[in-house]
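Render Alpha/beta fold hydrolase in 3D.
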Amino acid sequence: MPAVTVDTARIPYRIVGDGPETLLLVHGTGPGSGMWDHLLDGFTDRYTVLLPELSGSETAEDDGAELTVDTLAAQVNAVIEDAGRGPVHLVGFSLGAVVATAAAARRPEQVRRLVAAAGWINADDEYLRNMMTVWLAMAGDPAAFGRYATLTAFSRGFLNRIGREAVEANAAFMQPTPGTLRHIALDLSLDITDLLPRVQAPTLVIGCGQDATIPVENTRRLHAAIAGSEYAEFDTGHVVVFEQAEAFTSTVRDFLAAA
């Protein structure tokens, strides 16, 4: 697996497929790029897909310092440069949407089109701030931490559709690793307000109507702040990439194909 060194961090990244265009997928809070694996077949016929493991993920290596959006955006920009396949289409989910937006603002020449799903600008929303604060406070109880993550990540309808065994598996999956806790602390502290006017790439913002992690009003606000951006909204909980995987992939592909 190739890797690039950015300051004190060693950032590995996977390359999947060999399509004529390049798509880089930015993971959200938690273990890392594996969150995209179930979608890859929907992209690799057309795209070579880059999947970086940013600081805080399970396989990235760094000094454990407090994370910033600039730190993670610089890692995304460095992977694009190291892979030598830019400009790329850039798609991010949740924290990854914020990081992808920041990366597009920092290095506009590297990004053809941007998709920001379930993202936000800052933690001015008191619900969002309290949600993340409570989640951090559960770090000492891994079972409660994972169950709370499952409860806020998915809509009630989806949880009932997948059934108890799958719900229990999801609750066991998200654990309070040091990296995940660093991500949540960043979720609370980030603010990309000043970067948004610098986004030049055509942008699609995707909101989730039943989002109990990042209430959809925050994502609509992100859309309003990116000049000329398009907007799509799904009737799902936060993790739209699982709740409506096929529709999400189709929406992203249609937007990227308009380039």
